[in-house]
Design a protein that fits this description.
9 helices
């Protein structure tokens, strides 16, 4: 297994230009949620592949070939590289992952930071992008409210609680600023 400091050193440049809610701190939050999911479940997950995919999920869509080359340099065989790449892609929200590692990473990515974090992340990201509060709220209504789902039985209630909290917060905020 590659030392985590080496993985972090490889991944960090890809997160430097990302906003403050999607930088290396984001990876730490996702990893914490992975640990939480593993602690409340009994899955036989490949922790090494899961950890690597957690680091790569934020730039897999842009730099998949660079990730593959880096893994090859570190003596990963094609089968293992393929698995890591698949898990990284599975963390994306649009589809239900096939692998248990993909489901864990997907759900950790959704639940990072706890039930209030989705609101904080959306508001800060909107601000960083130069949006007004109204523009951010429009984005939130179209792209965030009731758009998050989890795959694992252990995480579905956590996601439902987060979605409920987010919807209630949004309703109260909307009533207060209209």
């Amino acid at each position: 297994m590659i030392d985590e400091k080496e993985i972090s050193a490889f991944a960090e440049p890809y997160y430097i230009t990302k906003d403050i809610m999607h930088n290396m701190w984001h990876i730490e939050l996702v990893k914490k949620m992975i640990d939480k999911i593993l602690s409340i479940s009994h899955y036989e997950a490949d922790k090494e592949c899961l950890m690597l995919a957690a680091y790569f999920h934020g730039f897999i869509y842009r730099d998949e070939e660079k990730i593959k080359k880096w893994l090859e340099i570190h003596d990963y065989d094609k089968e293992r590289i393929s698995k890591i790449i698949k898990i990284s892609w599975e963390s994306q929200r649009e589809e239900i992952p096939e692998t248990i590692e993909g489901k864990i990473l997907h759900d950790a990515h959704i639940l990072e930071g706890g039930k209030t974090y989705l609101i904080v992340k959306t508001l800060i990201t909107g601000s960083v992008r130069g949006q007004s509060l109204k523009e951010t709220m429009n984005y939130m209504q179209k792209n965030v409210l009731d758009k998050n789902f989890c795959c694992l039985p252990e995480t579905i209630p956590l996601c439902e609680e987060m979605n409920k909290f987010t919807n209630e917060f949004f309703e109260e905020l909307s009533a207060g600023v209209e």
